[in-house]
Amino acid sequence: MIVLPGELIDERKGRKLGKGVYEENGKVFAKVLGLPRVGDNELSVIPLSGAYLPNVGDRIVGVVLTVEISGWLIDINSPYKAFLPLAEAVDEFVDTSRVDLSRYFDTGDVIFGRISKVTKSKNVQVSMRDMVSRKLYGGVLIKVSPTKIPRIIGKGGSMIQMIKQNTRCDIYVGQNGVIWIRGDNKSRAIEAILLVEKESHTSGLTEKIERMLSG
Amino acid sequence: MKKEVKLFVNGRRVDSRLPEQLRPIDMKVGVVSRADGSAEVRFGNTVAMASAYGPRELYPRFLQEEEAGILRVRYNMVPFSVDERKSPGPDRRSMEISKVMRLAIEPAIFLEDFPKATVDVFVDILQADGSTRVTGINAASLALASAGVPMRDLVSACSVGKIESTLVVDLNGVEDNNSESDMAVAMMAGRGEITLLQMDGELDKEEVMKLLSFARENCRKIYELQKQVLKEYREGE
Q: How many CB pairs under 8 A join A and B?
């Protein structure tokens, strides 16, 4: 079942409005082309296409665009650039008047971080103050449609875990649609991920990919 | 361009249509692989191709709006779209049509969802045989929906007019050039809201009301076609 913009999904009946929907006179309509999700508590539409718009908490793979006085500007594959402040990236004390920040991250470096703040006018801040965030050395980046990322990760990470195990690659998946891969088998990992993106709507995909990678 | 032609023979129009009959319509989605969304719409011999991009970064910065995004539409007739070669590039006519198309589509888009950014739509008329702006609007709306741009509804458009004192629907090139009056209508058909209404020539009040009801009826038909094409495109993927 697919809904198009302007199609009626359901009466609201006190439920929460999720992403991809809008309400008018108690009726809830789709805003984007996608798959409707009608739950007991929430109404939403999962988009099938579209650009990445940052949300707080998203895990992202970003590329450093410029080194600023007290932080970095990050390309997050979105209409908006993100800012990574010094305090959100480095634990030690840094005297910004003496130190050039490019010794931590320089233009072109790849980071794995988290969206920590998004203002109403879409000023985006990234944070690396947690255990999984890190700088990514070497490897290659591929871009996929951000709407296909949940399928690439799979239920509880099943799909991506399987690809990691079968190809023995290091893979970091950003919810912004950027994926970082490093390892000797990276071409097979890329092949597998692009196949998942292309056939994301079919079922039994995990098994199919597993057969492809082991065969 | 005005020619002495018989526009009606035995109640049939130059292309043997009935007064209230649309030309054969063909719609395709996803024709431009590098665009975020695209569509091609044919109304008889009129062909419009639209590609949509975005939301994406907007530069120069003074164009950015703090509270909402912007929509940019370009209507362009390619040089080989008409009998006599059209010199390429924007002219007064295409600039005006770009603007009215933008105004016709803008109410349907949730611009507030992407402040500072832009959505761009490029509409190219590959073959012109009357009613190019409404064909362009239909294509643009399909392209935007397939690009995943948040919208209130699809925008559907059609032209109506008066030729040889008869009210007709969907004018072709010859009829357009020899019409007494013609009217372009775009609407969010699911909501019944009109977003574009242009008229050229003379009509009295009854005729306008009659033509408007024709336009509503045919926009609904086009709307259903648009929905069908988009669904088939997504399900076939």
A: 86
Which chain A residue is nearest to residue B148, measuring alpha carbons?
Answer: A50
ipTM: 0.90
Question: Do both A117 and A150 map to the same domain?
Answer: no
Are A132 and A150 members of one domain? no
Q: Do A49 and B147 touch (CB under 8 A)?
A: yes
- Which of B56, B145, B151 comes nearest A51 by C-beta? B56
Domain CATH number, residue A129: 2.40.50.140
Name the pLDDT band for B237 (thresholds 50, 70, 90): low
A38 has pLDDT over 90: yes
Give the domain range for residue B210: 17-235
> Is B36 an 8 Å CB contact of chain A?
yes
SS3 content of chain B, % helix, strand, coil (to 5): 30, 35, 35
Q: How confident is the model at residue A6 (pLDDT cuts 50, 70, 90)?
A: very high
Cβ distance A5 to B145 less than 8 Å, yes or no, reads yes
Q: What angle do CA A85, A87, A92 make, to 5 degrees?
A: 140
Is A48's CB within 8 Å of B148's CB?
A: yes
Which token pair is B125? 């008329």
- For the segment A179-199, what is each residue's pLDDT rounded down to a tens digit? 999 999 999 999 999 999 988
CB neighbours (10 Å) of residue B125? 24
**What's the pTM value of the predicted model, to 2 decimals?**
0.93
Let me know whether A150 and A114 are in one domain. no
A interface toward B at CB cutoff 8 Å?
Answer: 2, 4-7, 20, 22, 29, 31-34, 47-51, 53, 79-81, 120-122, 147, 201
Span A88-103, pLDDT tens digits: 999 999 998 899 999 9
Nearest to A197 by CA among A161, A145, A153, A162: A145
Question: Which run of H or of E encompasses A201?
Answer: none
Report which residue type is found at A23: E
- The span from the CA of A38 to the CA of A206, in Å, is 26
Same domain, A116 and A145: no
Task: Check if B236 contacts A (Cβ < 8 Å).
Answer: no
pLDDT tens for B17-40 read 999 999 999 999 999 999 999 999
